[in-house]
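Hi everyone,

Forwarding the result from last night's run.
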Amino acid sequence: MTVVSELPPASARVELRTRIAYGLGSIAYGVKDNGFSYFLLFFYSQVLGAPASMASTVIFVALIFDAVSDPIVGQVSDRLHSRWGRRHPFMYFSAIPVALSFYLLWVPPADLKGADLIPYLLVVAIALRLSVTLYEIPSTALVSEISENYEERTALLSYRYFFQWSGGLLLGFVMYVLLLRPTEEVPNGFFNVAGYQTYGQIGALMILASILISTAGTHHLIPSLNAPPPKRGIRIGQTLRELVETLSNRSFLAIFVTTLILGLGAALAAALNVYFNNYFWALTPQQVGLIVLSGFISTPVAVVLARRAGAVWEKKTAVLCIGATAFVIAPLPIILRLMGLFPENDDPLLFPILFAVVAVDLSLIIATQILLASMVADIPEDSEIQTGRRSEGTFFAASMFARKAVSGLGVLVAGAVLEVADFPVDAGVNPDADAATDLAMIYVPVLLAVYVFGLLAVSFYKIRRADHLRNLETLRARRAGQSS
């Protein structure tokens, strides 16, 4: 294990206002991800009555459009010539489409019931995914241009993930504690349709504000960002060859596969979170909301942990150590309950133990995500040496596709797990305990298998701190030679 202690010199550190502005924009993705991961499948299947397998399939089908749009946006944003630079035109343009499509997701026409909801869900889900692509890829790609420093990139992405998780957690807390309230007509708050509609309104406003504030807050950086390559005509064959060449970078392939696999596990857990909270642990929405509060402890802890671990260890080593610990803890309460070693649902110790477990595990998971993103930020220089092209947008487009793909894949797998467990579509307020136990028996081994393969994939990443410094020196020498 390689241990170092280098911290970025003061001259390499980015201004605080830039860190905050860069990070604030990720609230939009956090809000979107909170809805897709935690509530969407439950809302359309259990609350509105659409078949779970059809709803999960539609959410997955929507990501097929990402397979086309993500690399296109990444390539175009790498090459765009405009007075506002390569990235910012996309960021400004996306604000209203992202906010509007998120809102529409939670207010389907009242006359649509059951399977009739599926076409509406498909259209709106595609619109939301496409509009998120227009913002998140150019915005995230800025990190490799704002700073070249190995540790400073981790610091920038720490801010981004801090705001992403904080935004999603805040909206989730509001949802559970304030919106999913029981009424005389709806005794179980999880089935309160009006709460989901208000959730869509609040989320849309948060998305709009975060995108506009972040884009305006990083606008002053435009003159110092990397210039696009010279203009050329549209050559589809050459563009495709360059895309394949760029994405064939070995370290990138390792991170791409890792993101797919680990993200699949996280998305699967998130999609079934409401089911376990409601049916396995028998928690009220308000109790779940209090557990969500643990994230406000976990997020700052994760930021500190990621930055310190990235400074003391190689980033890959930190991901392997922190990630392995997180993935052992995640299913532990369910495993112990199945073994009869965990408090029962009427035990007063159940809630505080779940709160503590979630707080610890979430801090480890967020730290792992920060470090993985920072590893992506170090790839453009490695690739530029091989290809002669700056391709930040392309790498973050592919990384974004992996993140969004697993959101859809996670819901698809969750739907399959529900089908295999024969979990009733009309489970209602009080399903029998056997249904929840059968779901847990299938869920746990699937989740553990996914996480093991994810950690195996990250071991193939090759860029170390010394490699990154050599890449920077090589590129500076090359540019000096070209300018002389």
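The two ends are 42 Å apart (CA to CA).

Cheers,
N.
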